[in-house]
Amino acid sequence: MARRRQAKRRVPRGVARPAKRRAKRRTTRPGGRGIQSRRSRRTIVVGLAALAVVGLLVAGVFAAGPLGEALRQAEQAPDAPATVELPPLSTAVAADPGAVGRLPGLAGNTNVAWATRMAAATNVSVRAIQSYAGVALAKQTENPTCHLGWNTLAAVGSVESGNGTHGGSSIADDGTVSPPIYGIALDGVGVDNIPDSDGGAIDGDASIDRAVGPLQLIPEAWRNWGTDGSGDGVADPQNFDDSVLATANYLCHAGGDLSTLAGWERAIAAYNSATPYALKVSTAANTFAVTAARTDAAG
Asked: Cβ of 176: how many Cβ atoms within 10 Å?
């Protein structure tokens, strides 16, 4: 969604000194050569690490999640694939007709026992799994050519807000996320500059736009794709079901057929065009699919 400007890097002392001066130090202080060499190596390693972090920021990873959540996750996954791998469509188990205790709205489409097994296997809350799977099941009926799997929705939600847990938030039975989740100000300082477009009605900020809700949609995207998914008759970006449904609408519109690599990449790029973001979502979506398959096979 946005790119961070490269910060001016302070050159560590000793790295930029003229070659003759370094040579003189080595000849006049032979006993310290090993120490100086180790110091230089440490300086180079630190410098390269700093450049790597700046590179991630420039690529836009910082803006992938609220308050840098995606950057934190990217730093913890150094062995992530170098190219995007198309996630398979992970199918969900639908609720039995007339099942007792079904949730209202699209989350009620999901079989509770299956969602409970998936939650235990993926460390994602049962309520979030119900929403991802319920929306995916609905889209597969409404728009079967999109081929949107619950694992892709869960991957986006994982990167954007830790599945509705960012900042200590949680999801109530009715889908309400509390406390509400708001992204950083999109004021052009390290991110895209998106002037206020809603007078603060959606994002709570009348001076500048912010991404809103657990799936971090900007006000314009919410106006275009937001709708009621929880069954309460109100479209609310801070409701998990509504936010997941808006994301599904947006991904299917942008990507077309998500069973193809080109379509899946188009969908994710519309959400956030940074390559590291696509890699992170792809890795998460594939991991969810593999975990779900193993859990289903185990019964």
From this structure: 18
DSSP state of 179: S
Distances in whole angstroms, Cα of residue 76 to Cα of each of 43, 80, 130, 294: 22, 9, 27, 24
Give pLDDT tens digits for 198-222. 999 999 999 999 999 999 999 999 9
pTM flag (> 0.85): no
Using CB atoms within 10 Å of the CB of residue 132, give its burial: 0 to 12 exposed, 13 to 18 middle, 19+ buried.
buried
- Please say whether the beta carbons of 240 and 171 come within 8 A: yes
SS3 234: coil
d(CA 61, CA 50): 15
pLDDT tens across 86-145, in order? 999 999 999 998 887 889 999 999 999 999 999 999 999 999 999 999 999 999 999 999
| Bridge partner list, 162 | none
- Residues 217, 249 contacting (CB under 8 angstroms): no
Three-state SS annotation for 196-224? CCCCCCCCCCCCECEEECCCCECHHHHHH
Rounded distance between C-alpha atoms, residue 283 and residue 292, angstroms: 14
Residue 1 and residue 273 in contact, taking contact as beta carbons nearer than 8 Å: yes
Determine the Cα–Cα distance for residues 296 and 290; give it in Å rounded to an integer. 10
